[in-house]
Amino acid sequence: MSVFSDLKIEEYREAFQLFDTVGDGKIECSESGDVIRSLDFNPASEEIKKVVIDIDPKGIKRITFEEFLPILHAVAQKCPKKPKPEEFFEGLKVFDKDGYGVVLSGELRQVLTSLGDKLTDDECDVLFREVEDKKGRINIEEFVKMVLSG
Question: Transmembrane region positions (predicted)?
Fold first, then answer.
């Protein structure tokens, strides 16, 4: 008996098939995280590694959808779905000390480079490029829209 509904399984199968570039009904085991993230789950890279290493210790195995489902189940139990825009917005408002709807890019960079799935300074530069103003401030609403759209 599956822990996912038939409708969800079909949705997951369709996403899986998009990553099957060879057309043999398999994906690289190392792509499991990409498939899972495309399904709106937000696992940390380390969480994916913990599950995949048991199945593919050498990082070379191709897996079927049936082999992928237990990976998805294990990760889905431990990680949340991607946050809704309002949840993301509320989380960033903690850094909006003055209540103007902006955060300092330096503070946000510190958080993004030191917590969770850490970003590099270069990745932060790319992320901030379109939303940082000349005073080093980032509009929270614009930032949330940009991050969640792409």
Answer: none
Is CATH 3.40.50.1820 what the domain over 6-78 is classified as, yes or no? no
State pTM to two decimals: 0.56
Closest CA to 16 of 83, 77, 67, 60: 67
Segment 114-134, tens digit of pLDDT: 887 788 999 999 989 888 999
| Contact between 25 and 65 (Cβ < 8 Å) | yes
| pLDDT value at 49 more than 80 | yes
CATH no. for 85-149? 1.10.238.10
Q: Is 4 exposed, middle or buried (0-12, 13-18, 19+ CB in 10 A)?
A: middle
So where are the chain's domains?
6-78, 85-149
Residues 6 or more apart in contact with residue 112 via CB below 8 angstroms:
118, 119, 123, 124, 127
- Residues paired with 62 in a beta bridge: 28
